[in-house]
Write the structure tokens for this entry.
Amino acid sequence: MDQGQLVPDELTVKILLDRVAQEDCKNGYVLDGFPRTIPQAEVLDKALTELGEAVDYAINVDVPDENIVKRMGGRRACVSCGATYHLEHIPPKTEGICDRCGKELVLRDDDKPETVSKRLQVYHEQTQPLIDFYGAKGVLKEVDGTREMNEVFDAIGKILG
Ligand SMILES: [Zn+2]
């Protein structure tokens, strides 16, 4: 990591499994955003199998690309304090101005449509295949991510019991 290189999947999984071996994970845990590729999922699977464990559920929170581009495009961030807003969902009291510190709000490069589109392309190439991967194992659960945030949260909660 110090050399700015990618961490091998084996090391990532080892660090992850060390963490979830701790007391606060004894009733289970949720991995958010990992694995992101088939090779990562395979390494995770192998390591879990060696521990006599397995992934119970893989939850796909499904949101069409155009919704994601729209959502990200509505985000605004304060140049000074880092507070985040959304033009539709969490608008600032004064347009373009941070409620907290009064500084300017901007659309971050990460949230620009062209950046978001590039990330979606990577998602479709590398991450989307996991839907079939976990589907074939019979652990895939689908959640409609276009609904209100609390409804999505409740739907995930129901799956996890
Ligand atoms: Zn601010």
